[in-house]
Design brief:
This protein has seven helices and seven strands; from the N terminus they run ααααββαββαβαββ. The protein is an alpha/beta fold. It has a single domain, classed as Vaccinia Virus protein VP39 (Rossmann fold).
Length: 242
């Protein structure tokens, strides 16, 4: 985490308290590993009515577009995935503990594979980690570091050969917890997502002020030869470096 991340403007009387929390935050990947290692979950957005609504939208899209495989950047504990109806699936996740949860949950399902994701160690030049549909659900507003956000978005849009679906907020909302940073992420796609167009925006199931929506993007130019990423990254796939 950079100094810039720590001193983002915070309104109101909570400023000092939130600043102290951010100083001890330690980064998004470490936060989620601690969460799952301590028995935490992917949060309320991945269960009950919200999870069912997201699953209904995605399952309908997969059927209507005849999508044969899906890759997800941020599979979490797999509870949302348990409602999915995908012919084939690859889940990427920054938390080793969450990957272990998914491995156990879907141990008998040969259509699902899971891999540890480290943005700094991701360079899929051969296009091995691609699918007709790449999805990101409730992840972007948990990417608190600018460099992590930039790398994640690059990898996400390189992985989708036909479509990308993002379920997220799309405006800056100040005064949030240290592990939350709402972004106007569509600006990044407009600036860097060459070859993509926004197909539709579908309102999400949560009616609150921090409602997330479904942003569906369609690729209008074919991927680079060999499935190469627009940003080749720094290294090849690697395991946990701890």
């Amino acid at each position: 985490m950079t100094v810039k991340d720590l001193i983002r403007p915070l309104p109101g009387v909570r400023q000092l308290s939130l600043l102290r929390q951010r100083i001890g935050f330690g980064g998004s990947a470490r936060y989620w590993e601690r969460n799952y290692a301590r028995g935490g979950t992917s949060g309320p957005g991945s269960c009950n009515a919200l999870a069912e609504a997201k699953a209904a939208f995605l399952n309908d899209f997969v059927r209507a577009r005849e999508v044969r495989s899906v890759i997800e950047f941020g599979c979490g504990d797999g509870h949302q995935l348990s409602l999915a109806d995908y012919p084939s699936y690859i889940g990427l996740e920054v938390s080793r503990s969450a990957i272990e949860l998914c491995q156990r949950r879907f141990a008998g399902d040969p259509t699902k594979s899971f891999f540890l994701y480290d943005a700094a160690c991701f360079a899929d030049r051969a296009g091995l980690f691609t699918a007709p549909l790449a999805i990101s659900l409730d992840v972007i507003y948990h990417l608190t570091e600018d460099a992590v956000f930039e790398a994640y978005m690059t990898h996400l849009f390189a992985a989708g050969t036909r479509f990308v679906i993002v379920y997220a907020t799309n405006r800056e909302i100040p005064g949030t917890a240290p592990h939350v940073r709402h972004r106007h992420f569509t600006r990044w796609v407009e600036a860097h997502g060459q070859g993509w167009r926004l197909l539709q925006v579908t309102p999400g199931p949560n009616p609150g002020p921090d409602r997330a929506d479904f942003f569906t993007y369609e690729r209008v130019t074919p991927p680079a030869p060999g499935g190469a990423h627009p940003d080749p990254g720094k290294a090849a796939w690697c395991c946990d470096r701890r």
